Amino acid sequence: MGVALAEDEAWMRHAIRLAQRAEAQGEVPVGAVLVLDNKCMAEGWNTPITANDPTAHAEIMAIRLAGQRLANYRLLDCTLYVTLEPCVMCMGAIAHARVKRLVFGAIDAKRGAVCSALELANADFLNHQVDWQGEILAEICGDLLRDFFKARRKR
């Protein structure tokens, strides 16, 4: 395993722990961590239900906190790790923040806006294209979501 893949998997495992925190709060289990120079700048997990905020997705929470910590709305040279392929709102924020690299776990065939339902990662009309890598620890990330929704349907 290459160094880059090992680092990606390590940070994705961190994002998975954050997704589990969201699940413990009754939220859809999605976690995100924003990294600069192999150091955590910010973390986020889904909180739209508990925060009464439809924009409180894991990615948005991490981007907001990183911007404050770095005192810059441009997150140049940062990598965002997220357990689920980002939606259109989150891809917009990722592009506007100029996140250099995006790494995600599970594919979201219905709502994913990187390479699935929409392909915004390299859309010509955006002022920034993000390098991306999908399906890192995808099975673990996908199982977390499937198990969550399976349990909800049983209720």
TrEMBL record:
Span of domain CMP/dCMP-type deaminase: 6-117
Record GO biological process: tRNA wobble adenosine to inosine editing
Cofactor(s) essential for the protein: Zn(2+)
Residues the record lists as binding Zn(2+): H57, C87, C90
Reactions catalysed: adenosine(34) in tRNA + H2O + H(+) = inosine(34) in tRNA + NH4(+)
Top-level lineage group: Bacteria
EC number: 3.5.4.33
Annotated InterPro entries: APOBEC/CMP_deaminase_Zn-bd (IPR016192), CMP_dCMP_dom (IPR002125), Cytidine_deaminase-like (IPR016193), tRNA_aden_deaminase (IPR028883)
Cofactor binding remark: Binds 1 zinc ion per subunit.
Presence of the UniProt keyword Metal-binding in the record: yes
Quaternary data: Homodimer.
Similarity annotation: Belongs to the cytidine and deoxycytidylate deaminase family. ADAT2 subfamily.
HAMAP family (UniProt xref): tRNA_aden_deaminase
Reported function: Catalyzes the deamination of adenosine to inosine at the wobble position 34 of tRNA(Arg2).
Protein name listed in UniProt: tRNA-specific adenosine deaminase
Species name: Methyloprofundus sedimenti
